[in-house]
Specification:
It contains 2 helices and 11 strands, in the order αβββββββαββββ. By secondary structure, it is mainly beta. Strands 1, 2, 3, 4, 5, 6, 7, 8, 9, 10 and 11 form an 11-stranded antiparallel beta sheet that branches. Pfam families: OMP_b-brl_2 (PF13568). Residues 1-19 form the signal peptide.
């Protein structure tokens, strides 16, 4: 019987380690992580890039929150074109707006929309890097605005939050006929502060 009480006490003491928010709570979460991005074109392959920024969340109830953020996101793709190794690096300011449903203590499912603004574009051919938009054919310049639909899951323990998302690109990156949409897998690690 004593063992049962000890196990129950241990189980209950760990509940406090999981985030338990109530309606009206507001949190801010600085975060950094890794993007694995590509374009939805036939020959495009995935490349790694940095992502970092912060998100603010308003808890409508203990099981539901709405968040918005600003994330600097290094995206793009790589490809083998004839005998050349080509890397396209596109930097964005992403603005994720998400609905967060807490399905268990610390565990949230997320979905929403993500407008984004293009900040810069570089292309590298066999290690030589140039400003892409300076040399892009007419109509192939990268658009200044992008739109995607992020879906993901996060887990929070003792205010440390691990977040995994897939950003499904909706808009083509340029007006060029063969242009694809952004396709980004994203994993971040952050820390939540209550405001």
């Amino acid at each position: 019987m004593k063992k049962l009480f000890v196990m129950a006490a241990m189980a209950l003491s760990s509940v406090g380690a999981f985030a338990q928010y109530k309606a009206g709570d507001v949190t801010i979460q600085p975060k950094v992580g890794l993007n694995v991005s590509s374009l939805t074109e036939d020959d495009a392959e995935y490349k790694a890039g940095f992502v970092g920024g912060a998100e603010l969340e308003y808890h409508v109830s203990p099981m539901f929150g709405i968040s918005g953020g600003l994330l600097y996101s290094m995206q793009g793709a790589k490809a083998k074109v004839k005998d050349y190794d080509v890397k396209m690096k596109m930097d964005y300011l992403n603005i994720p707006i998400l609905a967060n449903v807490y399905v268990a203590p610390g565990l949230a499912l997320k979905a929403g929309i993500q407008p984004a603004f293009n900040l810069s574009n570089k292309v590298s051919v066999d290690g030589v890097t140039v400003d892409y938009d300076k040399y892009a054919p007419n109509g192939a310049e990268v658009k200044s605005f992008d739109f995607s639909v992020p879906v993901g899951i996060s887990y929070e323990y003792m205010n440390v939050c691990l977040d995994a998302r897939y950003n499904i690109g909706v808009t083509k990156v340029s007006d060029f006929d063969d242009a694809g949409c952004n396709s980004v897998f994203q994993i971040t690690l952050g820390y939540k502060f209550s405001l």
